[in-house]
Amino acid sequence: MTETAETTETAETDTPVLEARGLVKHFPVRRGWALRGAHVHAVEDVDIALRSGRVTAVVGESGSGKSTLARLLARRTALTGGRLLWNGGEPPSGSRAYASEVQLVLQDPFASLNPVHGLRYILGRALKLHGVPEGQTLDEAIKALLERVSLTPSDQFIEKMPHELSGGQRQRVNIARALAVRPKVLLADEPVSMLDVSIRLGVLNLLADLRDRERLAILYVTHDLASARYLADTITVMYAGRVVESGPAVEVADSPQHPYTQLLLSAVPDPDRDEAPRLTGAGAPPSLIHPPAGCRFHPRCPFAMDKCRVETPPALPVGSPGHTSACWLHESGANTQASPAAGTAGAA
Amino acid sequence: MNAPVLEISDLSVDYGFGPDAVHAVADATLTLRSGEVLGLAGESGSGKSTLAYAVTRLLREPGVITGGSAVFHGDDGPRDLFEMDGEEIRALRWSQISVVFQSAMNSLNPVFTVGNQLTDVLRAHRRGMSRSERRARAAELLDMVGITEDRLRSFPHELSGGMRQRVMIAMALALEPRVLVMDEPTTALDVVTQREILQELGGLRERLGFAVLFITHDLSLLVELADSIAVMYAGRIVEHAPAEALFRTPRHPYTEGLLNSFPALHGERVVMTGIPGSPPDLRGLPAGCSFNPRCAHAVDACKETAPRLLPISWEPAEPRRAACLLQTDGFQAPASLTRTGLRAEEIGSTR
Amino acid sequence: MRILRNRKTLVGLILLAVFVFVGVFGPTLAPYPPLELVGKPWESPSSAHWFGTTQEGYDVWSQFLNGARSILIVSFLSGVIATALSVIIGVAAGYFGGLADNFLSMLANIFLVLPALPFLIVINSYLPAGNKASTALMAAIISVTGWAWGARVLRSQTLSLRKRDFVDASGIIGERAWRIILFEIVPNLVPVIAASFLFTTLYAMGTYVALTFVGAVDVNSPWSWGSMLFWSQSDQAAESGGWVWFAAPGIAVALLGTALALLNFGIDEFINPRLRAAGLTRKGLRQAGLGRRSTLGLTPVVRRTAAAAAAPADPTVIVEETV
Fold it and tell me: Residue B89: which of C285, C298, C303 has the nearest Cβ?
């Protein structure tokens, strides 16, 4: 699983299977008389590209807009602005056609399966809606799916009901259901957050397997930076609806450039740390109804300058190609910012 | 070592009664020492929350305590919490042992102000205080957790998640208890707020000197936070050791597997597998050691005998215990479970 | 089935079975037709007339046996129609939301607020005499006032189900709305629908008996316990000593209502697992000798030791002999 130089190079020149440019999503506020007409600026001007055979992780806290982004990419939520590109061109029109190319796996394994239906019905419906593969009966196709997600022996699992399965097994069924339509893109919204710790890696390894063997383009939404570093090829960090940093996974995690990413790293539990962590920034994420002007992180940023309060920084290149950070500190092709936390974290 | 403040011995807790009863906790023995942080780690079904609620007699129907004792060393000497009646427990609870609940953010009454709820605690336990004294104390408590006094008039929904949690901690410390039981207090908060609150908690511990029983599934957090850690699996304590020792040199296969479930933030990326299978259903536990079906090092004896929590046979002087047959006389533990005295640089990230 | 283990459900089912038996076989088992002169007026219960006779000399026992059938038919038929209406209207309102929801909810609220009995009396008064005797028509009319409450319950259940991830997931793989409603949502509503059906049937029964008692429907055909209540009241049975004439149907109606209510409780406990668990443990604790409920904030401690040492006065600590 160690990243090789060749893979990185060729991947950069691929046309992304699914690309988002300038995505915007504003939700109207329904509650409260005083907030009439106001909007929650959940996603603002987000660019992201998903390529075959690569996992892109979107890391952020709750309220960062990462789940909304996944739903926008799945076209389960209407865009307020921006556009989606499919292989560089127009995406398939019609919800059924789009659904057969882009699938979304949800977070809660206990709520995503209808308790009254067995696995045969749940997986069978997905196959019937999008076509059983040539030369296979429905049962054979279902068992093939179960084997792809390592739920074996498949002739036992096909008869089971959801309540007979553990959390990890249920999540595998969810992934199998998404795979039944034979998509090119798999969007996973916090797929392991609600699973027991010891079985998370099993599901993450399954995603890695799907990336490597079947060359799926995978979006992995999470709040856990460590698992993003483990699984992903690219990490995109979101804060208050905007992308603040994006780049190769190990580089973003080991030498973060954006002050928010640095703050995240200083706060994350890290048993290998030698000294006690020093938080680089205080406060809480801002209101998305009245977000701060300019850079949304400036109220908490220890490096905030006057420019930050006024103008929103674009994604500026830092470090290796493909690594960007939306921070005015990197203006004029500047110097890679050494993070205060990276010094104590001790890269091996 | 500090004097013990809470000694739990052979605690057993069931849900339900009769032959269908589920054994949520079995024969748990733990000691919490004054001023220390004892971490209780485990996954779903491990019994960690059940243990904490049972000790404070807050376990709801159909939970029943079926054995053991919990001796609390309070102001009037050592007393068994399971031998007390309602009045005595109520007097003890909150003034000497208090609890910060798992869904603490939903534990605040939405129709009362924060100040009202703080003074409520004082009104219930400190009859002698006057109204202005109570208000002053409430303001002092908020200040202690880093919230400004004007928030006394706020309602819970006007506060952020992190602030509500701080209010819960302030309420728990209102009467300066000796023991604070915290059940997943930061799980629902974002990572930065979690860090801030834990740092404040450290400061408060230094000031007030209370001991903490910290329950969580996040073992990596406990390694940083706790002085000693007890790992639970299927209702039993499987390992208990000082935090650093548990992290660097685990003695139980489950601890080893659990540590191998947290991807590192540094070093080369290698494939990690966690633990195969899933936590067992408490209604149908495997025979012998409950962990044996998932254990990479299991031998035949593991399917027959349930191991007891004992000191390690080949390093009996170490202040640690593990419930694994391989660590007892007559067995040879595998290399990964017999490492000793290695420092961080030597182990690196090849775990 | 596990639901039958519940004592309340069992009692309710048995009672209901008894009444269904009476409804099916009653008229055949009755010695006389309900309105045939067979004895002297106001006879007391005797071996010839188990329940005595009415003011006109009719056999009360025969009247009683004949009285169950139409009540059962009207109640259950009305229950079925009203429940069907409430499912269609409630689930549609909950799933589609928006304008449809606003309109259907308004409709339901109107019918909820409408005073049912006066409304039905007025409707019945417009019916031509012949139709007042039709059970099917009666059932249909009563169900008009009986569907609204169930519709509201189903609407709110559907609203919460609609947000559940598995409904979302069905939409994600491309299921159509009607299939989602029929195959994903409604199967999860079955216990609620069953409870709503029983509740509505109970309501329909009470309404039908009331309508008959008041004379808004044809009192003699079909014959029902309500008819007995009507006639016994108008012939002043209480003052004349013929108390069985109104007591028997009255108690029967009450018992039938109880049977339906017990079945309803049983389903409620089945739907709500926490009610179920509590019920089971209370029985267990009782068997262990713990007489009263456990108090919140005081987890009970039960020990098994060789000698009973502690004072049994404290109900939260029990010490037992080793088994």
Answer: C298
Distance CA B166, CA B152 (A): 13
Give me the domains of chain C, ranges plus CATH numbers.
2-271 (1.10.3720.10), 282-320 (no CATH)
- Give the domain range for residue B150: 4-230
The ipTM of this complex is: 0.85
Whether pLDDT at B343 is above 70: no
For chain C, what's the residue count? 323
CB contacts of A209 in chain B (<8 Å) are none
**B215, B256: one domain:** no
Closest approach of chain C CAs to the CA of A170, in angstroms?
12
* Cross-chain residue pair B265–A226, CB shorter than 8 Å: yes
Residues B251 and B204 in one domain: no
What's the gap in Å between the CA of A268 and the closest CA on chain B?
6
- Looking at residue C1, its pLDDT comes to 58
Q: How confident is the model at residue B351 (pLDDT cuts 50, 70, 90)?
A: very low
- B82 and B106, same domain (yes or no): yes
Mutate to test the interface with C, among B9, B61, B66 (most CBs of C within 10 A): B61
* pLDDT, average across residues C222-230: 89
- For a pLDDT cut of 90, what percent of chain C falls above it? 38
Could you tell me if C166 lies within 8 Å of chain A, comparing CB atoms?
A: yes
Which residues in chain C touch residue B61, judged by CB atoms under 8 angstroms apart? 277-278, 281, 294
CB atoms closer than 10 angstroms to residue A332: 7
Q: What is the distance of C-alpha C152 from the center of its chain?
A: 18
* Coil, strand or helix at A61: coil
Which helix (H) or strand (E) segment holds residue A157: the answer is helix A154-157
Of A201, A223, A282, the CB nearest to B273: A201
Asked whether the beta carbons of B342 and B252 are under 8 A apart, the reply is no
Mean pLDDT, all residues of chain B: 88
The letter for the amino acid at A270 is D
* Residue that finishes a domain, picked among B174, B200, B230: B230
Task: Name the residue with higher pLDDT: C133 or A67.
Answer: A67
Q: Is residue B212 part of a domain?
A: yes
Total domains, chain B: 2
State whether B10 and B67 are in the same domain: yes
Domain boundaries, chain A: 17-101+183-345, 113-182
Show which of B205, B230, B255 is a domain's final residue: B230
The reply to whether CATH 1.10.1660.10 applies to domain A17-101+183-345 is no
Write the pLDDT tens digit of every residue in B95-154: 899 999 876 667 888 889 999 999 988 888 888 888 899 999 999 988 888 888 888 888
- Chain B positions touching A61 (Cβ under 8 A) are 190-192
Q: What is the share, in percent, of chain B residues with pLDDT greater than 70?
A: 96
pTM: 0.84
Whether the CB-CB separation of A325 and A250 falls below 8 Å is answered with no
Compute the CA torsion angle B333, B334, B339, B340 (nearest 10 deg).
Answer: 20
Nearest chain C alpha carbon to A162: C166
Q: Which of B43, B192, B276 sits opposite A197 (nearest CB)?
A: B43
Residues of C in contact with A178 (CB under 8 A): 172-173
C303 neighbourhood in chain B, CB within 8 Å: 66-67
Compute the C-alpha angle A129/A135/A140, nearest 5°: 70
